[in-house]
Amino acid sequence: MQEKPPLSLEEFLPYRLNRLAEAVSRNFARIYRDRYGMTRPEWRLLATLGQYGRMTATSVGGHSAMHKTKVSRAVRALEERRWLTRTTASEDRRTEHLELSRAGLDVYRELVPLARQFETELLDALKDDDADQLLKGLAALEAAIVAEAGRE
Question: Is the pTM of this model over 0.90?
Answer without folding.
Answer: no
